[in-house]
Structures are given as structure tokens and as C-alpha cells.
């Protein structure tokens, strides 16, 4: 006669704890650190070597990002996916979106004041929400909307200044902001949607295309000829090494940015960009002795508080979504001996 099977204790959840380094907030922290580092480094190159060629600098960033991603593939950190003609066309359009976003931003800066440009760009989270609702049918809670208010108001106060613009400048600045929001949303969808590309794989495919496009834009603007003249008279080994280090930092920043976007969301990345914007002002004050007013300082504090509020709401809502479902009514106990019933009640939670 066969004995009764021993009952198995009920396990409510059985997942491994994530690596503390490989968390969304760890990647966001690295994003802030590398972004501010690159900002300081760019200013140092401009002031030390007078290398004021934005398109060329962007080209160096994309070239180093492509070479870095290719090296990581050869080292076995990821395996490039096999894409069809349609997916490769998506990569081409994404690289063009990346380059066009930079182009529109640079052009708009020439016809509006820096303060106006920063304030409009601070509205990127609003456009991100609108794009996500219209095209991706996403929904956000009232608390998410509420947490964005101090953030947007803080950026406005931190960048208060001469808000001068022309009609075409206003249009280009808003267009650049919409493109920035679209790029962030598309970056997220490429990595978590149907393609599900590794961040380095995305960087490998996007960077060479963006490099060619930046060279074309540089030639159209006349910057390429200026760079050739500069290299003939002022190029030095120190500047070459400085530009190489600058490109390496840009590679790691792009990788970290794509990974943080994948692990968080498009909205979180645009909020992080706003916080980074005011942190850049803090860096300018501490490193470059830039003078700001009381309202600017208050705006910086409010932006940081707004970023903290959004982070708290985002974390709380994620925890609510991940909370395991519990049955409304207890399950009936099967017949058996008293010891078996006690064992059935031995419910343990596996962390």
C-alpha cells in the first residue's frame, strides 16, 4: 500500500534578489556622474584648447561609441542580434532622429536666449507623457503628474533670465524638445519592445550611422573646413589625447544612458535630464565660479526636491505593482492527520 505523499509548503514568491549594482537607481547615479564629468570635460577642452566645434565633438563621441561597442562585442560582453531589412531601417531612422535632435537644438540656440532654451527643454517630461499616452496607450497616476510640478517650476526658477526669442526660434526650440522626448521614448521601446536590443547592440548599430550624419551636417554648416584649418595650425598631441579621453567618456555615458532608460522608463530619463540640468548649474558655480541669484538657488533646491518626490512616487508605484496577490478566502484544508494539517499551515516566504 502506497503511503500518502508528503505535502509541499506553499511558496508565495521565489525570486532571487537583484544585484545591488545592477539596479535602476545605480544606473541613474552613474548617468548623473558621467554626464556631469563630460560637461566639465567639454568646458575644459573649450577653454584650454579653444576647440569650439560642436559637430566635430559630437562626431568624435559617436565614433568612439561605435568603436567601443564593437570592442565589447569582440570581448563577448554581448552578442549582436540578427536583424532583417525592416529592423535595419528602424536603426537608420533612429540614428537620424538622434542626429536631427542635436541639429535642431544647436540651430535653435542661435535664435533664442539660453534661458528660454533651457526652460522649454525642461518641458520634455510633459511631451514624453503626451507621446506615451497617444502612441503607446500608457496611463499615469495623479501622483505622478503632481510630483512633476515642483520639478518643472524649479527648473524655471533655476534658469530664470533673459527670455528672448524669435517666432522661428520658438518653433525650433519646441520642435527640438518634441524630438528629444520622441528619441527617449523610441530608445526605451527599441530595448524593451519587439526588438529587445542590448544597450551595447543599439549603440553599435546607431553610432556609425550617426557619425556619418554628423560629418555631413558639419560639412553643410562649413565647420569641417574650419576644423581642417585648425588642425593645420593648432593641433597638438595633448589635444588629440584630450579628445580621445572625451570620446571614451562619451561611450560610457551613452552605454549607461541606454541601460538606465531600459531599466527605468522614458519619463524617468527625462526627469533625470532636468535634474542633471540644474546639477550642471551647481557644477558651474562650484568649479567655474559662476554667479547666480537667490531665485536661481531656490530653483535648484526645488528641482532636487521635485526629483526626489518623483523618485519616491515611482518607487512606491513599482512596489505596489510587484506586491504578490493574496487570496481573498482561505483555501479549504484537505483531510488528513493532525500532523499533516500542521505541516500544510507551514507557509513560508522564500526571499
TrEMBL record:
Principal localisation: membrane
Residue intervals of the Sugar phosphate transporter domain: 28-311
One GO cellular component, as annotated: membrane
UniProt xrefs under InterPro entries: EmrE-like, Sugar_P_trans_dom, TPT_transporter
Signal keyword on record: no
Keyword Cell cycle: no
Topology with respect to the bilayer: Multi-pass membrane protein
Keywords carried by this UniProt record: Membrane, Transmembrane, Transmembrane helix
Pfam families per the UniProt record, alphabetical: TPT
Subcellular location: Membrane
Sequence intervals crossing the membrane: 21-41, 53-78, 90-109, 115-135, 165-182, 202-220, 240-258, 265-288, 294-313
Superkingdom, natural source: Eukaryota
Protein name, entry field: UAA transporter
Protein's organism: Podila minutissima
